[in-house]
Amino acid sequence: MLNYFANPRRFMKLSGILTPWMAGATLILAGAGLYLGLFASPADYQQGETVRIMYVHVPAAWMALFCYTGLAISAAVGLIWKHPVADVAARASAPIGACFTFLALFTGALWGKPMWGTWWVWDARLTSMLVLFFLYLGYMALNSAFDDPQRGTKASAILAMVGFVNVPIIKFSVDWWNTLHQPASILRMDGPTIHPDMLWPLFLMIGAATAYYLWVLMLRMRRELTEGRVRARRQIQAEEAGA
Amino acid sequence: MDAISKFLEMGGYAGYVWPSYLAVFGLLGVLLWLSRRGLKAAETDLAQLEGPDGKATRRQASPAADGAPDT
């Protein structure tokens, strides 16, 4: 199974079919989510209109964790099974995840100021999200820090796998420690505590963010694989010219 | 008109709500644009290098870049 998808040519063919579908899904889900979130859903009885920040903050925070999970799995598959497409997927995931993490922190600050009275507090949830942001930056820096790309790939893959320990820490930080951040309100044993009028636009925006991630991931992977072919072609031409 | 103003005011929290949306759609838009531009540039480079007989040359030229053989 892994060997089947290890072939970049098969990936290029499959992603060529899927990319426009992901683009369409992103636009449709985001359009529906924005309409319901900004126009059709009510203001919160305590937080007023600031609750509308939730429709971009929560998807960004979820995707920050989702992208890192994808990155860590891809890095592990690349490291253990030498899967060439997995390494490309890990590298392509990193900037997308870093953007989502930055946006989760930024929109969280904009939501925190009117509701908590502060832009930032060094509590467990916020600090562990900041650590995640630095893990993304560290992965990207380490990946490109070596003259030999293979060494960079290996070193950054180990960092990605070690850094994965931060993902459950972020998820359960609101349960394990006292924090200003609210506890889980969607993924709970007793079901979501959010009214369906707010839950539906939230799910649509999470769906849009997931489709966006897959869309941009495939664009970036196609780019790297195409650049690999360009380098190989140039090398052949240089060898032919030198012969 | 009042309804539009009221909507844009966001109950007095416009300074927090709209910058959030602007940041999200702005940054994700830029990332998408850069990713698409990079892919287009790579595809253009490849098309120029391969020329009209690119397909036959490509298979011979870049087995490493193309990864594992079809199995």
Overview features:
heterodimer; A: 243 residues; mainly alpha; Four Helix Bundle (Hemerythrin (Met), subunit A); 8 helices; B: 71 residues; disordered C terminus
Gyration radius of chain A (Cα, Å) is 20 Å
Largest interface, C-beta closer than 8 angstroms, per-chain residues: A-B, 50 and 38 residues
- Shape assignment of chain A: globular
Give start-end ranges of low-pLDDT stretches of chain A: none
Return the average pLDDT of chain A rounded to an integer: 89
Architecture of chain A in CATH?
A: Up-down Bundle
Please explain how this structure is put together.
The complex is a heterodimer of chains A (243) and B (71). Chain A has 243 residues and is mainly alpha-helical. Chain A has a single domain (20-179, 193-242), classed as Up-down Bundle (Four Helix Bundle (Hemerythrin (Met), subunit A)). Chain A is built from 8 helices and no strands. In chain A, helix 3 (54-81) runs antiparallel to helix 4 (84-116), helix 5 (124-143) runs antiparallel to helix 6 and helix 5 (124-143) packs antiparallel against helix 7. The mean pLDDT of chain A is 89. Chain B is mainly α and 71 residues long. Helices cover 80% and strands 0% of the residues of chain B. Chain B starts with a helix and ends in a 5-residue tail after the last helix. Mean pLDDT of chain B is 79; it is low at 56-71. Chains A and B meet through helix 2, helix 3, helix 4 and helix 8 of A and helix 2, helix 3 and helix 4 of B.
